[in-house]
C-alpha cells in the first residue's frame, strides 16, 4: 500500500513509527546500555534475583547454613557496601534513561506545538474563506456568528502565552 492511497490514520501510524525508530537509532551507546539495564532492573526477575541474593547472603552470614562459613558477619558490612554501590550506579543509569526520555518528550512537545499552530492557522484561513463565501453568495449575517468572526482572526500566540502565564497559579 502506497502512502498516497493509505488512510490518513494509517499514514499517521507509519509517520509516528518512523519518528520513534529514528529516535531509538539516534541514542548514544551510553543511552542504549542504560536503556537495556533500566529495562532489566525494572523487571520482576530482578526483584526475584535480589530477594534471593539477599536471603542467601543473610542466611550464610548468619551461620544458618552449617556447611558454609560466614564471610560477612552481622551487621553485614560488605553487603551494605555492595548494596550502596549498586544503588548509586542504578540511580545514575536510571537518570541517563530519564534524561533521554525527557529530551525525546521535549522534541515531541515542540513538534506537537508546531502542528497545533499550523492547524490553528489553517482553521483560521478556512473560517475566513467560509465567511467570504457566505458574503459573496449573499447569506444574511447572523448575530450569533460573532464568535466565528472572532475565531477567523489570526490568533496572537505570544499574547495568549502571556495571558496564560498570568492566569496560572504561581509555584
Task: Describe, in plain words, how this protein is organized in 3D.
- This protein is mostly helical.
- It starts with 7 loop residues before the first helix and ends with a helix.
- 74% of the residues lie in helices and 0% in strands.
- It has one domain.
- The longest helix is centred in the middle third of the chain and has 60 residues, at 77-136.
- Helix 2 packs across helix 4.
- The protein has helices at 8-25, 29-41, 44-61, 77-136, 146-151, 157-167.
- It contains six helices and no strands.
Q: What overall geometry do the principal axes of the alpha carbons give?
A: elongated
Succession of helices and strands: HHHHHH
- What proportion of the residues is helical, as a percent range? over 70%
Measured between the Cα atoms of the first and last residue, the distance is: 51 Å
Largest sheet: none
Number of helices: 6
Strand content: under 5%
Write the layout of secondary structure elements.
Blueprint lengths: L7 H18 L3 H13 L2 H18 L15 H60 L9 H6 L5 H11 L4
Helix pairs in contact: 2-4
In short:
74% of the residues lie in helices and 0% in strands. With 171 residues, it is mainly α. The protein has one domain (8-41, 75-167).
Amino acid at each position: 500500500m502506497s502512502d498516497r492511497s493509505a488512510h490518513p490514520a494509517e499514514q499517521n501510524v507509519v509517520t509516528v513509527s518512523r519518528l520513534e525508530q529514528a529516535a531509538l537509532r539516534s541514542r548514544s551507546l551510553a543511552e542504549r546500555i542504560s536503556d537495556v539495564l533500566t529495562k532489566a532492573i525494572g523487571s520482576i526477575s530482578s526483584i526475584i534475583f535480589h530477594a534471593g541474593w539477599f536471603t542467601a547472603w543473610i542466611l550464610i552470614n548468619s551461620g544458618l547454613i552449617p556447611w558454609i562459613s560466614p564471610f560477612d558477619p552481622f551487621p553485614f558490612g560488605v553487603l551494605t557496601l555492595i548494596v550502596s554501590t549498586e544503588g548509586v550506579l542504578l540511580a545514575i543509569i536510571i537518570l541517563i534513561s530519564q534524561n533521554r526520555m525527557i529530551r525525546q518528550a521535549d522534541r515531541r512537545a515542540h513538534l506537537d506545538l508546531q502542528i497545533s499552530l499550523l492547524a490553528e492557522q489553517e482553521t483560521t484561513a478556512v473560517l475566513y474563506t467560509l465567511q467570504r463565501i457566505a458574503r459573496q453568495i449573499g447569506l444574511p449575517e447572523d448575530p450569533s456568528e460573532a464568535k466565528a468572526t472572532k475565531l477567523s482572526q489570526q490568533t496572537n500566540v505570544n499574547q495568549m502565552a502571556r495571558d496564560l502565564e498570568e492566569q496560572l497559579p504561581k509555584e
